[in-house]
Design brief:
Helices cover 0% and strands 52% of the residues. By secondary structure, the chain is mainly beta.
């Protein structure tokens, strides 16, 4: 009746890795990780969440993280939510190679309150989301590469490089006052004044 996997506290701080799980029809979220879990690093990798009653994967990390190679099918809310309670740096953090398909009434993937998070190589194709296939909320600035979405892509903040499978309504925000310095892979490693 609850979450498939839930981590809301860990003492002392630990390295958290949730990998290779298959979660079918959880009563709430498939995987839920709260920032009070005090992880020093976090990886959510290669999991399958099928038909969750709530969100497929909800991660509110307070540490550097990767969310990679997960499959979410038929979420009744958001497919995946990556969110912080207040604005945080996303340097070294990534959401990549995830597949979100089927239904998701709100959005396929939603990013909130992270600057400079890498969102790359995701495939999102959800039926009739009320917000968007891929949604970057106010307070977030992402480095986006090679995502494929069938439908609406919305960015309340800076988003670039989205490829759509069909005619997508795209709203772009702006980034001002900073010039990003990128490493050889394109990850932001700092700013010029």
């Amino acid at each position: 009746t609850g979450d498939g996997i839930q981590l809301t506290s860990a003492t002392p701080p630990i390295r958290c890795r949730i990998e290779g799980n298959r979660i079918t029809t959880p009563g709430s979220r498939g995987i839920y990780l709260n920032d009070s879990a005090t992880c020093v690093s976090l990886a959510v990798v290669g999991n399958q969440v099928l038909d969750p009653v709530g969100r497929g994967i909800e991660v509110r990390p307070g540490a550097p993280f990767i969310v990679d190679g997960n499959v979410i099918v038929d979420s009744s809310d958001y497919g995946m939510v990556i969110s912080a309670y207040s604005l945080r740096s996303g340097l070294g953090c990534s959401v990549s190679r995830n597949h979100v398909t089927g239904t998701a009434t709100a959005a396929g993937i939603s990013i909130n309150n992270y600057d400079d998070i890498i969102v790359a190589d995701n495939f999102v194709d959800v039926t009739s989301p009320s917000i968007a296939q891929l949604y970057v909320n106010v307070g977030s600035r992402v480095i986006e590469r090679n995502n494929r979405c069938d439908g609406t892509i919305t960015a309340a903040s800076a988003l670039r490089g989205v490829s759509a499978l069909s005619d997508a309504a795209t709203t772009l925000g702006t980034v001002t006052g900073k010039v990003a310095v990128q490493d050889h892979l394109g990850a932001v490693v700092g700013y010029l004044p």
